Every structure is written in C-alpha cells, then in structure tokens.
Amino acid sequence: MFLKQYEVGPYQNFTYLVAESEGGEGVVIDPSYGIEPVLRGIDESRVKVRLILNTHSHPDHVAGNEAVRAQTGAKVVAHRSAPLGQDRSVADGDAIDAGRLKIEVHHTPGHTPDSVLYVFEGNVATGDTLFVGECGRTDLPGGDPSQMYDSLFERVVRLDDGLVVLPGHNYGSTPTSTIGREKRENYVLKPRTREEFVRFLKE
C-alpha cells in the first residue's frame, strides 16, 4: 500500500493520498486548503485517484475537493447527511473500494452530524472525531457532546488496537498514533458516564 500524509493549509490540516500501490488506484482523504502539494504528489506518484473521501463537511476538510476532481476525475464520497455536492453517499457499515484498496465506513456523529471514519489496510482516518491526545470540538453548529460520547465509547474504543490513527489535524504530540495508544493515553477516552463526559466537554 502507498500512503502519504500532507500537512496543508492554515489550520494544520492533514490530507492523505492513499493507493493500493504507487502508480495504482487510490483515494484522497479530506483535501484541504493549500492542496497544491497533494496535487503534485498525485502526479509524482502516478496514483490514479478514483475517490475523494470526506470525513465531514467542514470547509477545511473539503476545500480541495474541486481541485482534486478537476485534475483526476475522482468522485466525491461523503456521509449521506453531509451538505456537500457528493457523487456517492455512504452510511454506517458501507464498504467502498478503489482498485484493491478496501475501505469500511463508520458513522461517528458528534463533531458534526455527518462525521465518519474510514478504516483501510490497518489504518483509520478519523477526521475531527479523534485526534492524537484529544477529540474534536462539539460546540460548533451541529456538534453534539452526547453523540460524541456514543461515537468514542461505542465505536472508536471498539476498533482494533493496532489500527494506525490518521487524524484530521496535526494537533498532537505525534502526527499519527494507534487506537491502543489512544485508549491508554488520551485523557478524552478516560472512562466516564455520559453525564460526566458531557459536563467534561462543556468545561
């Protein structure tokens, strides 16, 4: 598998170029502002980008959609509730592929109603649901701390400990992590009741 992480734009966003192999079929995850390095990377790696995967609809995760689409002809994929011009709508449990690259969709509302994780080849792109050492905000429009509780404690912590966490922003001590490490070290994932968690986020 070919995987490259790019930090782009003014908000420490991570955009990912992923493919079955260098020169093979693949995807771009969360094309942000300042997408030019990713576009050059697509050309240099000769990846045939088939899909643009958006983890959620905030502008800093979709700003590069049209530039990637214009260069590659890729189709935009997002959760069916996302207010985006999407070519393919997905829901929890869906499976998608780009060549030999197989991707599972997990719906994780909380940061936004349309937030999803993409699990593939030992990795999980978490968008703004889970960062290294932190989780996404729930005080923006559409955010819901109770839904975030469900997403983290019913979804994220049940993922395989070995999955490499590919977050949506470079906010942590390292650019990637693992689910196991986050369960051990991320203070957000400390066991709490729903009421305690909601109060914790509001504080």
What key attributes describe this structure?
Metallo-beta-lactamase, Chain A, 32% strand, globular, alpha/beta, 6-stranded mixed sheet, 203 residues
Short note summarizing the structure:
With 203 residues, the chain is α/β, with parallel strands linked by helices.
What is the topology?
Elements: E1 2-8, E2 13-19, E3 25-29, H1 36-45, E4 48-53, H2 59-62, H3 65-72, E5 75-79, E6 88-90, E7 95-98, E8 101-107, E9 116-120, E10 123-127, E11 130-131, E12 134-135, H4 145-155, E13 164-167, E14 177-178, H5 179-185, H6 194-202
Parallel strand pairs: 3-4, 4-5, 5-6, 10-13
Antiparallel strand pairs: 1-2, 2-3, 7-8, 8-9, 9-10, 11-12, 13-14
Strand order of the largest sheet: 1-2-3-4-5-6
SSE ordering: EEEHEHHEEEEEEEEHEEHH
Instruction: Tell me the major beta sheet.
Output: 6 strands, mixed
Number of DSSP E strands: 14
Structural class: alpha/beta
Mean pLDDT metric? 98
Percent helix range:
10-25%
Number of spatially distinct domains: 1
CATH class: Alpha Beta
Shape descriptor reads globular
What's the Cα radius of gyration?
16 Å
Measured distance between first and last alpha carbons: 41 Å
Strand content: 25-35%
CATH architecture: 4-Layer Sandwich
Query: What is the tally of helical segments?
Result: 6
Uncertain residue ranges: none
Q: What fold name goes in the CATH topology slot?
A: Metallo-beta-lactamase, Chain A
Instruction: Please identify which CATH superfamily we are dealing with.
Output: Ribonuclease Z/Hydroxyacylglutathione hydrolase-like
